[in-house]
Design a protein that fits this description.
single chain, mainly alpha
Length: 151
């Protein structure tokens, strides 16, 4: 639930700052990019905090090999995507590519959420019910697609 709150609050704050005249966040897509970036910094960094990392490793479906490496890889991809979301559009289309890539990453990581909802493996594992997690994941994907398509 915390990532959703971060996304919504930071996006609203960024847009409010844009309404005060800061051009960088003068549109909803730009403000949403900032909200997503902060959210992905939070979630990406959590892949490297020992207790959270153990929970993420525990929810990697057993069919996937090297769960520790996959958790590290997804954390790095989230952090890189967050950084790219903050690159102004004037510099190039990196923000669009990052938003699309993060939407794909969210879809690719979703099987771990399904597995987690069915097999609690660790006290540190994410424990959001599948229906709620699916709804949040849809919001995250929609926000990423909004940034990509409306930027």
């Amino acid at each position: 639930m915390a990532p959703l709150i971060v996304l919504l609050v930071v996006t609203a704050l960024a847009r409010a700052v844009g309404a005060l005249g800061v051009g960088y966040v003068a549109s909803w897509p730009a403000a949403t990019a900032v909200g997503l970036a902060v959210m992905f910094i939070m979630t990406g960094a959590s892949h490297f905090f020992p207790a959270r990392r153990a929970g993420f490793v525990a929810i990697v479906p057993p069919a996937l090999k090297h769960p520790g490496a996959l958790v590290a890889l997804t954390g790095v991809l989230e952090l890189l995507g967050a950084a790219a979301l903050l690159v102004p559009l004037e510099v190039g289309r990196l923000r669009v590519a990052a938003a699309l890539s993060l939407a794909v990453l969210l879809v690719a990581m979703f099987p771990a959420n399904i597995y987690a909802s069915r097999a609690r493996r660790s006290v540190h594992s994410p424990n959001t019910a599948l229906l709620r997690r699916t709804a949040m994941q849809c919001v995250f994907i929609a926000a990423a697609l909004f940034v990509a398509l409306a930027s």
